[in-house]
Give the backbone structure.
Amino acid sequence: MIGKRYAVVVLFLTWVSCAFAAAPVTVELVGVKKIWDQAPHNAFTDLARWNDSFYCAFREGRGHVSTDGKIRILQSKEADMWNPAALISLDGYDLRDAHLSVTPDNRLMLLGGAAPRPKDNQSAPTGSFVAFSRDGTQWSKPQIVSQPGRWLWCVTWHKGRAYGVSYPAPQNIPTSLELLTSDDGVTYRSLVPQLYGEGRPGEVTLRFDTSSTCYALVRRDRRGEEPYSAILGVSKGDYTQWQWRDLGPEFNGFGGPNFIQIPGGHGSTELTEVWLAAGRMHDGGTHTALCYLDVQNGTMTRLLKLPSGGDTSYPGLVWHNDLLYMSYYSSHEVPPGTAGATKTSIYLARLKIHPKPVVDTSGE
């Protein structure tokens, strides 16, 4: 019995060593700072660098699920001092999960969830809204682009078109993803009506590399005995045919999935492509994590646990001046069991990415 247990431990440690060895980079937390906590609940962030400034967008409300959700926009030149730029609301809707992108004509676009919620803590069908700005301060009136019941969670612009994935909200059985595209960010057409439907897939972020390959990072939640780990999708050409890779059980319920490609090099010619992902993890307690994503082999490795806990995640990612800037929300600074324990705040982390030394295995 002891021998079997020892063998299992050795196998586990070997797997862990191999997993971390697979990441060609390490990460250094340069600093993290709370940048907003004015509402009872501040959550679901995104981050953009546009017109020589940083913009951070997130939801403000009474609680995680409440009728009064609004989207706050903060602006900062160098991500140090942050100033309120706008507060966006839509009568009759709880606005959620802000996402920022830049349109082909250089407007800042805000996409978010819109739920006609009758009462706090009550489930409601969620759709999506968009608003646009030319200066980050004045915004067009929010307009519904996906009716409640089908949530277009995030879009990415590529070669003049916006691409995004919608899912049923609430997540009815069966759950299915649909790939949508738009020329103007307002009117969407279906590109792949049945993109993926194994398990309970939900939030999806799409990214494109320099060769126009599209990658999809998908959150899946637990439902019965169905698979619930995060998955990676890969597609080329017209994006109608996809290959899917399971990223492993340690990435179950990978909430607020986001990822970014950063320049290769960093002093090492061995690194030509580096993808970093971030989201909520549960192993070792709920927290927000930064991970290395190997898009070629379909694997992911946790690099760093950010100062976080409890109600947390939904990161925004920006690469600027050889640093990774990451926004996220968390409740880790509120002691559990105390009054106001549901309080969440917005944080901004600066991270430096280092290449691992190239090991000479030639024996010379």
Summary: The chain is about 5% helix and 50% strand. Residues 2-21 form the longest helix (20 residues).
